[in-house]
Every structure is written in structure tokens, then in C-alpha cells.
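ARCHIVE CARD
Drawer: 12
Card no.: 0347
Subject: one protein chain, sequence and derived structure
Cross-reference: see card 0346
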Amino acid sequence: MDRIETWRGRGMAMAAMALLASMLAGWSAPARADCPDGDPCETVHVYRLQSRLPIDEDAQGRPFQSLQEANATDAVAFRSILAVAAQANAYAIRYQVTRIASAPNDYCECNLEYDNRGCPSSLPREELQQCARVCRYNDGACQVTGFNRKHDGGLWYAFPAATQCGGPRNTWRKRTFGRTNPAWCDWREDARTVKDAACMARALGERPEATLGELFDDEDLCLP
């Protein structure tokens, strides 16, 4: 091998190492966002059913009608849920949410629990008062607002209380690769519309051509 080929090989190796270093640097850096005014933020409507309970907050003080430590869906998934809710003793809630849409978008399962057991809405008041919402990613705590696309094409979202914007959490940045800061947040609830779920299910059956937006925007329809 002559000297030209030797230096050419060394140059290619150095270029490859530089590329790898830049990729690693990109992956290790925290996700930044100039939210809520632009990319990578999005403002979306999400929906959920909330059982009517004899108490207003969980054991951690989170209002049951809020999105804190809860799952919600997009309109596609919620139409399917609402279609079978004609007998539900529940609220149908639409939220306007601003969230960082960029990765990571790990989806978390959220439940109302006490001592690692689910809390059904039929529990006595005294027992329900011990229950708290919990969002988990695998076996660990939920670290970001994420989503999962279900078989019907709809999206299910998770909204961990620990990353909700407000108070000391006022820097729009996602937690990534174990990097976090108490000031970082990646979602906020902007608005909320509450309806009676059973009534909304009947309205959807009577007006199948209507969009969820049209039903929720009707101020006189299905008051809670």
C-alpha cells in the first residue's frame, strides 16, 4: 500500500469517527423545543371518559377531570369508545392540549390504583380516597408525554403529572436518555369541555355524520 492510499484510509476512518461522534452527540442531547409557539410542539384535541365518583381528587390531589397522570385518545379512538357508552355513568371530556411531539414518545399505561391494585369506581368512598393515579412505562415511572397507535388507527396518549407545564416546570424540553431537570416540561392542558357521556353516546347514534368537534362545540348539548 502506498502513502496516498494510507492517508486516504486514515482520512476515511477519521471521517467515520467524526460522523459517529456527531450522531452520538445528537442522541445524547436533551430534546429542545421553542414551544408552545412552533415546531416541535403540536396543539391537539384529546378525549377521555371519566367515571362519576363520590370524590373529586385522587390521593395525590389530582383532579379526576384533569389530564394529570391519565390516558386520553384522539377522535378516531374516542368515537369507538363513545359508541358503547350509552349506559355509562361517566363524563365525556375533550381537552385542548399542547405537547412536544418529537421523540421520545414512549407510551405509558395509566390507572387508578392503591397498593399496586386497580381501584374500580364501585369502591366505597373511604377506599377510593386512598387511590391515586399512576402512569408507568414498563415497570418504571412515566417520563414523557407519548402515544401509541391502536389497531383501529386511533392514537392513545399518556400525560404524566411529573412533566406537566406549570409553576416551577416552565422550560419546554423532553426528558431523554436519563437526562432530566426539575424545570423541564413537555405538555400543558389549555382548555377542557365536559359533557355527560351517556347523552353524548346517544347523540352520536342519532347523528352519526356529526364530528366530535360539532358535538362538543354545542354548548347546550349533554350538559354534565
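Annotation on reverse: The first helix runs from residue 3 to 28. The CA atoms of residues 44 and 97 lie 5 Å apart.
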